[in-house]
Amino acid sequence: MVMPVPDETLSHGRFRHWRSPSRTDTVATLSAARTISDDLKDGLASPRARRAARALRKLLDVEGLGMADLSGATLWAGQPSADTETAALLEDVLHTEAPSGRPPLVALPLHVSDELIGVLVVSGPTTMAAVREAAALVVHALERGRLEASADQAAQAELRALRAEISPHFVYNALTVIASQVRSDPDRARDLMLDFADYTRYSLARHGEYTMLSEEFHAIETYLALQRAVLGERLHVQVRVAPEVLAVAVPYLVLEPLVENAIRHGIEPRSGTGLVQVKGEAEGNECVISVEDDGVGMDPDKAKAILAGRGDAESVGLANVDRRLRSVYGPWFGLVVETAVGAGTRVVVRVPRFQPGVMP
Amino acid sequence: MAPPAGLRVLAVDDLPPALDELCRLLREAPEVAEVAAAGDPLGALKMIQAERFDAVFLDISMPGLDGLELASLLAKLSEPPVIVFVTAYDGHAVAAYGIGAVDYLLKPVRAERLSSALAKVIRMVSAGEPASLPKQALPDAMAALPVESAGRTRYVRRADVRFVEAHGDYVRLHTESGVHLVRMAISRLEEYWEGTGFVRVHRGYLVALSAVRELRSDSAGGLLANTDIGDVPVSRRHSRELRERLLRAAQRGQLDRQGR
Description:
The complex is a heterodimer. Chain A is of the alpha+beta class. Chain A folds into 2 domains: 7-160, 2-Layer Sandwich (Beta-Lactamase); 163-352, 2-Layer Sandwich (Heat Shock Protein 90). Chain A is built from 11 helices and 12 strands. Chain A has helices at 7-16, 23-39, 49-60, 83-96, 128-161, 168-184, 186-204, 213-231, 255-267, 300-307, 316-329; strands spanning 64-68, 74-78, 100-102, 105-112, 115-123, 210-212, 235-241, 249-251, 274-283, 286-293, 336-339, 345-352. In chain A, the strands form 3 sheets. Chain A has a 5-stranded antiparallel sheet, with helices on both faces. In chain A, strands 7-9-10-12-11 form a 5-stranded mixed sheet. A two-stranded antiparallel sheet of chain A has the order 6-8. In chain A, helix 2 crosses helix 5. Chain B has 2 domains: 7-127, Response regulator (Rossmann fold, 3-Layer(aba) Sandwich), CATH 3.40.50; 144-251, CATH 2.40.50.1020. Helix content of chain B is 30%, strand content 32%. Chain B contains 7 helices and 15 strands. Chain B has helices at residues 16-28, 41-50, 67-74, 93-99, 111-127, 186-193, 236-251; strands spanning 7-12, 32-38, 55-59, 82-87, 103-106, 144-149, 152-157, 161-167, 170-175, 178-183, 198-202, 205-208, 214-217, 223-227, 230-234. In chain B, the strands form 4 sheets. Chain B has a 5-stranded parallel sheet with strand order 2-1-3-4-5, sandwiched between helices. Chain B is elongated, with a radius of gyration of 22 Å. At the A-B interface, helix 7, helix 8 and strand 7 of A face strand 13 and helix 7 of B.
C-alpha cells in the first residue's frame, strides 16, 4: 500500500526518526483509516460519508475519489474525472459487478454481504493494489455498520418479546369471582368488571416501550383490587408511593409481575393471611421500588436460579423483568431478591430517576 | 354550575347493549336532565339537526359514518353541541382531541369518569352563555388567615398549612405548630386556595400538594395522603384528580423535598 505522506509530517519526522518511515506516519495512517471507517458506518447516503471520501482521497494521494450508489449518483472528493468516461465506467461496473478500467481511472464494485451496494471510482496515478485496499476498507466499514444496526434491531426485538404477558391463572380467577358475584351482588360485579377492563387495557397496551411509574402504580392497584376479590381476607395489602417518583419513566409492566409473584409464591401456597407491601420512593437520583411479602420465602439459591432463567415456568415473570431492566438500564440495575425459607421475600428494583432515551 | 334545567344529551352507539349502558349512566348523573339515544350515526345527525343538544356522547367505531367523521360534520353547525367520545379502544385520542372533543371516555365507562366529563361539558356550555360572569381575579388576601386564640388574634400563613379539615361551619387548619380553627366553609376556602397548590381530596378535606409525602392504600382499597403531621383521607371520587395533580407537580420537579 502506498503511504502518501504530507510534506510537513515528513520534515518533522526527519528530525526524530531520520531513517525509517516515521512512527508518526504510521499512527496518522491508522488513525485516518479508523476515522474513515467510523464515518462510513451509517452508509454512503449519510452526511458523514463525504468526510470519509475526502479522507480516503488524501490517504490514497489521488486527484479524485468518488463513491457511487446503485443509481450511479456519485459523491466526489477532490477533482472529479471526466463525466463521459466515468459514466461509462460506472455503467460497466454496475452491470458486470466486476472492476473496470486501470489507473489513472479505475472503478471497483463494493459488495457488502455478497450484495452490490455501490462503486468506488479513483482518478489519478496510483496502483491497482492501493485501490483494492481502499475498496476493502470501505466495504468493511459498511458491513460493520450493517451488523451494528441489526444488533440494535435484535436488542429491540428481544425487548419487545420480553414484554410481560398477561397471566392466564389470574385472568380466570378474576373472571370466576366476577361470575360468582353477578347474581348475588351486581354492583360489586360491575365494579370488578371495570377493574378487569382497566387491567386488561393496561396489560394489552402496545404503545411505546415505557410508561410512567404513576401508571404502573395505578395498574397494580387495579390488579390488587381484583386479587382481593379473589383471595378475600387472606390477602392484606399496603401500597405506599412518594409523589416525587410518580413521573419516573420505566419499562411497561415492571411492577405487576413482582406483585403477582409475591402473591403466587408468598401468599397463595399457605393457609392464613399474608401481607404484601409495595413501596416506591426516591433515594437521591434513584428511584427504589420494593415488593415484599411475609410468605413462605425460598432458598436464596432458588431465587438466584429463577433470576438466571432456570426457574419453573411460573417464575418466568421475575426473570423477564430482571432481563428487561438490565437491557434498558445496564447490568447494575437488575432485580435484587432478599429471601430465605420461611422468611418472606423482598424484591427491590432500583432505577435511575432520569435516564436518557427512557421516556413514556 | 350546571344550567338550572340540567343538560340535554344525546348518546350515539351502534351496539345496543353499549348504548343502553351509556344511557343508564347518563340518566343516573345528577347533571343530566334529558337523555336521547341514537343507534346509528345518520339517525343521530337527523336528531341533532332537528333539536338542540348540549352535548353528544359519541362512539367512534360505527359502520357508515364513524364517530370522528360525524363529529367533524357537527363542528360545522352554527351552534355545535359539545362532543365527548366514548370508545373501547384508546388509539384515537389524538384525532379526537384534534376535532375539538372536550373529553374521551373508554368503555366500559366508570361513573366517576363520566361525572368528570360532564363537569367539562358544563364548563363549555356555561362558557358559551353571555350571562356567565367572568371569574374575578381576587387579590391574594388569603395568604394568611386570622385565628383567635386566648383572646388574641394571630395569623396562620397558608404556606404553613399542610391540610384543612371541615368542622361544621369552621375549618381546622393543620400546621406543624398545631391546629387552628377558622370560621369559614371548606368549599369557600377551596375557592380561594385552589390556585395555590391546595386540592380537595375528600368532602371534608383539602390538602397542600407539597405536603404530601406518600400516597398509601390499604387492603380495604381506601387511599390516604400522608403528611408529616398526619394522614388525610382521599375519597375514591377525588383520587384521580389528586394523582394527576401530584404527577404534574412531579413532572415540573416541584416536589423535591425542602426539609419537609
